[in-house]
Design the sequence.
């Protein structure tokens, strides 16, 4: 078998990547996990995880991810912080360039996850950190006793609204339709909450600010086109996610949404490269599905490496 630095390199330290790391290390494959920022992925921005089995009453996202990290390191997984700049398929060997340095391995598992979508408004970027945020857990506490808006109607928006109501004088949820996309349990909680107001059939037309930061938003009624200015000091954007697949664009086959084309077996268009978790085309984005993918990807890695060893 060809000379490599690692049997397996995993890109991304969310639930999918860490589970792949746990399984691969436990199978005695020499494994490195590369994370760009902090381990834990999107779950680090989740206030309370209520649907991860084994935790009745729920568990805080960061607390759960710390446990994941402790657990996979216990089996000898090496982790490092770095940015993967390039991945090349040299046949039996994969070549990665990480912060300018070369790493050779037999298998690459892509578990790069997703990032929150932006609204795409002209002054949105300059107001980040001055009223606009994509993470209620990170920034919610800055907005005490002031009106807060949450934009979106999915699970993330609903969870953020329910979390932010403890800080804000009120929470206005802005949704472009007249029915939330979020799961029923969250819809029921939102409907029953007196501190959460709904702005149905509405989108944010523009953001209003002064030299201190965000002061309001102009809502556009999607049916009538009517514009209404609403005073808010904090605005949390939760309008969905985009896949983090820049590093594999042009290398792996992607679907029309930019997600890696891979089925439940995590097999991609390049032999020896597997995709796990939210970055691949899937029907459900949950910690449990990411964890399942991570385990499958590690098994596929083991099989691929066994086949390479047999070839000699
Ligand atoms: P999502 O399910 O895609 O919902 C995005 C929401 O934003 C939708 O309501 C959508 O409206 C709205 N939207 C999209 N683009 C918009 C725009 N340009 N302007 C205004 N509104 C816009 O995204 P998510 O809530 O981030 O969830 C992502 C995935 O993670 C989902 O699969 C979700 O189930 C999962 N998740 C699960 C949990 C949990 O299980 N506890 C928690 C968080 C997330 P429409 O409804 O009209 O399309």
Sequence:
């Amino acid at each position: 078998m060809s000379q490599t630095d690692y049997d397996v390199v995993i890109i991304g330290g969310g639930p999918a990547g860490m589970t792949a790391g746990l399984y691969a290390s436990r199978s005695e494959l020499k494994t490195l996990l590369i994370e760009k920022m902090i381990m834990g992925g999107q779950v680090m921005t989740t206030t309370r995880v209520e649907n991860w089995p084994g935790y009745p009453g729920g568990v805080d996202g960061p607390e759960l991810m710390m446990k994941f990290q402790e657990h996979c390191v216990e089996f000898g997984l090496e982790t490092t912080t770095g940015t993967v700049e390039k991945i090349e398929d040299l046949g039996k060997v994969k070549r990665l360039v990480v912060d300018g340095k070369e790493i050779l391995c037999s298998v690459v598992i892509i578990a790069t996850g997703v990032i929150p979508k932006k609204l795409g408004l002209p002054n949105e970027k300059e107001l980040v950190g001055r009223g606009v945020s994509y993470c209620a857990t990170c920034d919610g506490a800055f907005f005490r006793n002031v009106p807060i808006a949450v934009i979106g109607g999915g699970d993330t928006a609903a969870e953020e609204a329910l979390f932010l109501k403890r800080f804000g004088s009120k929470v206005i949820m802005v949704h472009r339709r007249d029915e939330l996309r979020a799961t029923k349990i969250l819809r029921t909680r939102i409907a029953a909450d007196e501190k959460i107001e709904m702005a149905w059939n509405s989108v944010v037309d523009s953001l209003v600010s002064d030299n201190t930061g965000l002061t309001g938003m102009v809502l556009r009624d999607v049916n009538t086109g009517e514009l209404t200015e609403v005073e808010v000091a904090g605005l949390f954007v939760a309008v969905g996610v985009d896949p983090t697949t820049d590093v594999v664009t042009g290398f792996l086959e992607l679907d029309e949404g930019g997600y890696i084309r891979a089925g439940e077996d995590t097999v991609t268009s390049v032999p020896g490269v597997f995709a796990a978790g939210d970055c691949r085309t899937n029907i459900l984005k949950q910690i449990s599905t990411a964890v399942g993918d991570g385990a499958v990807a590690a098994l596929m890695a083991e099989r691929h490496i066994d086949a390479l060893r047999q070839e000699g």
Remarks:
- The chain has a mean pLDDT of 96.
- Helices lie at 15-26, 61-74, 136-139, 155-164, 184-192, 287-311.
